[in-house]
Write a structure and sequence with these properties.
The chain has 190 residues and is α+β, with helices and mostly antiparallel strands. The chain has one helix at 3-69, and strands at 74-81, 86-91, 98-106, 117-121, 124-131, 142-145, 151-159, 169-172, 184-189. It has one domain (33-189).
Length: 190
Amino acid sequence: MDNTGRLNSRGQITIEAILILGLFILLFIAVTFDTGLKVQEYSNDVAIAAEARANLDKIADSIMVVRAGGPGTTRTVTITSSYNNWGIATGSGFGREATIIYGIGFNSSAPIPEEMNATSFGGRYWGTIGRDISGVNSGTTITAITGNGTGTWKIRIRYNTPAGLTPTVALAPSWPTIPTPGQTIDITLS
């Protein structure tokens, strides 16, 4: 075999090696991209559920502090929402039972995180979390923020119940009135 045949043979092996390496790189990119999309979707779910849980905990903890303080006690907390559609409910709001409920609205039931209960209310799908508070009866009001609901709100909790009676939670303004960012939402134990 002369040098020309050997060089052609080596050239063909090099081209085949480049093609095989290229296929492995494409396969690696495809698998990595798909995994990246799944990680991004999961991190979005975690962010949604974490914001809802943090806001619910601020409100519920404040209700417990006001309840413990007795009649005349008032406390104000600030919550922030990164989502356009969200709401606070008491009682059986958003199709679930709890003393206080926090929900985030979605356009369909598909993107609702597994950590949240999916329900339908007011023509929208809601992912909700709730918390029962000992010694406080559930009311039946809902404050829903729709449209441009991103921003910060003050939640003022007041205890107006006479001593010795079990308070009931009430929200104002109630749905369908829509408070705008910066407004105060009142929660009254009465």
